[in-house]
Amino acid sequence: MRSALIVVAGLLGFSVARAADPTRYEFEEPHMGTKFRIVLYAEDRPTADAAAKESFARVAALNRVMSDYSADSELSNLCAKSAKAPAGPVKVSDDLFTVLAKAQEVSKLSDGSFDVTIGPVVKLWRQARKDRRLPDPDVLKEALSRVGYQKMELDPAAKTVNLTVAGMQLDLGGIAKGYAADECLKVIAKHGVTQALVAASGDIAVSKAPPDRPGWKVAIGKLPGSAAETKYVWLTDAAISTSGDEVQFVEIAGVRYSHLADPKTGLGLTGRRSVTVIAKRGIEADSLTKMASILPAAKVIPAIDLIGGAATRIVVLTETGEEVKESKGFGRWVVRE
Predict the structure, then answer these.
(1) pLDDT digits (tens, 9 = 90+) for 65-100
(2) Fold of the domain spanning 75-163
């Protein structure tokens, strides 16, 4: 499970509000294996209720498209078509194509460190964590032969996906929640609500700032047991994602492995790292955290510096203590008390 981002301001409300200020409302429902939390400022309760209800319905619909746990999802059906032999180009929904297209973009940027075709080894690694035993080398090698973003071909004009190797399995766990948070904000805006926050575990997307605030004040996650001072950022019309292994990890033969698997090795990461990425949209922040969690910071930071509106902070635990690396644009988000 990701390290939770803490939203400090905007979630607590205010003891005194001007008559013209909209009222704060908060909603929460379980979706996509986590809790989706919506905080918004609306003129009245019916507006807030309608916006939240439609938003959660949108997330539920997206889960039916992108879940790799449900055999009936669009994603599962797509993979099933090529289970025995490549099925050729398959037309998919706009939502699924949008997410897969962004995934390919980040895969190329990260040289495959983020890769949604990782499904075969994710299933192996889930079982390995339960058994507390590394996967059989031959089984892992076979699974890795079905992994690789180059094996997934997309046609933007026809909105088709071609899985070119039999038995490929897609896993959108590192991008779907960010996209869902973005879509919630779109739904909320349709109801005339422009001040909102959507949080899905470690993924947060926000629109305009709460009343009388410069933004949504969010505490950045730290390494477990860290004595470093907590940092905060102000967010408006942006998204933030954090990733770490504070809760989900396993020790096998004296080695600590993260729940997050490396698409190149098929095994969980062994380094201790806390990563925060800010971007214009949740779909970007969510997927870029995977790149920042796997690649060396020296490669991640220059890549993120090239993305408009994106920034990152990477904390790595070394033998001599915590090593902190920040991209050029990160400092402008940090709260100056």
Answers:
(1) 999 999 999 999 999 999 999 999 999 999 999 999
(2) T-fold (1.10.3980)
